[in-house]
């Protein structure tokens, strides 16, 4: 199937494509390796988190990876952290939710596709009513992929935090629905909270430069292997666990 144009009016065809899209594994690993060398993030873990994460990955449990969102550079620094962490074995088996505008320019789309991207049509860009059907389809596609063994990485705040980089902002309910629907399909998703800090920011509204984004601090919380049964309850767990991970990233910076 040819890659469709990523526009809201074409959402059904877009999600038909990304339901089965698989990037080239070797190119993906090479790209993540290169980003790891370029950004050199520092990675720390809560007590027992690394061992638990490795155990769950060895069991082929699908990971639902939640990361706080600070900058347009986050997809690249997160990829760098994945290479330099216990997540390395799931590179190529993890879908990454990314805003639809990143799929417009050809060269950028090729990079996002190579990283396992799935487009998200955001209400803040198109209007909540306009994106409702596409959003439901996106959640279904993520749940299907998790049921087939893929992980899904999400910035659940939905937009960059320009208020306070030490505090998780409002979490969208989408991540809870992804886990809920994956469970209904027989998957056993594991929540992995990954806190990100670029250090103290004099003005949170000013994003870090590429140079300032180097040596970012990432901190893994203890994976949650048994999630609640309701989407709202899952979302609350994500909010609490992600704040703990962010506190760890800030402390370790």
From TrEMBL:
Signal peptide region: none
One Pfam family linked to the record: Acyltransferase
Highest taxon above the source species: Bacteria
Protein's organism: Nocardia aurantiaca
MF GO annotations: 1-acylglycerol-3-phosphate O-acyltransferase activity
Gene Ontology biological process: phosphatidic acid biosynthetic process
Keyword Acyltransferase tagged: yes
Annotated protein name in UniProt: 1-acyl-sn-glycerol-3-phosphate acyltransferase
UniProt entry keywords in alphabetical sequence: Acyltransferase, Transferase
Occurrences of domain Phospholipid/glycerol acyltransferase (ranges): 63-199
PANTHER family tied to this protein: 1-ACYL-SN-GLYCEROL-3-PHOSPHATE ACYLTRANSFERASE
């Amino acid at each position: 199937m040819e890659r469709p144009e990523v526009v809201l009016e074409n959402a059904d065809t877009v999600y038909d494509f990304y339901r089965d899209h698989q990037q080239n594994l070797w190119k993906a690993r090479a790209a993540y390796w290169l980003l790891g060398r370029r950004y050199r993030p520092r990675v720390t873990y809560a007590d027992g988190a690394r061992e638990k994460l490795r155990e769950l990955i060895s069991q082929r449990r699908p990971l639902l990876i939640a990361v706080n969102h600070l900058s347009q550079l986050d997809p690249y620094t997160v990829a760098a952290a994945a290479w330099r962490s216990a997540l390395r074995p799931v590179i190529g088996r993890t879908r990454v939710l990314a805003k639809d505008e990143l799929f417009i320019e050809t060269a950028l789309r090729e990079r996002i596709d190579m990283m396992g991207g799935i487009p998200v049509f955001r209400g803040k860009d198109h209007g909540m009513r306009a994106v409702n059907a596409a959003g439901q389809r996106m959640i279904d596609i993520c749940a299907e992929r998790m049921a087939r063994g893929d992980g899904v990485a999400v910035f659940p705040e939905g937009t960059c935090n320009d208020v306070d980089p030490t505090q998780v902002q409002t979490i969208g309910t989408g991540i809870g629905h992804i886990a809920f629907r994956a469970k209904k399909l027989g998957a056993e998703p594991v929540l992995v909270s990954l806190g990100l800090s670029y250090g103290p920011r004099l003005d949170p509204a000013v994003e870090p430069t590429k140079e300032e984004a180097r040596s970012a601090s990432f901190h893994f919380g203890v994976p949650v292997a048994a999630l609640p049964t309701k989407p709202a309850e899952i979302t609350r767990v994500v909010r609490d666990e992600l704040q703990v991970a962010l506190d760890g990233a800030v402390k370790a910076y």
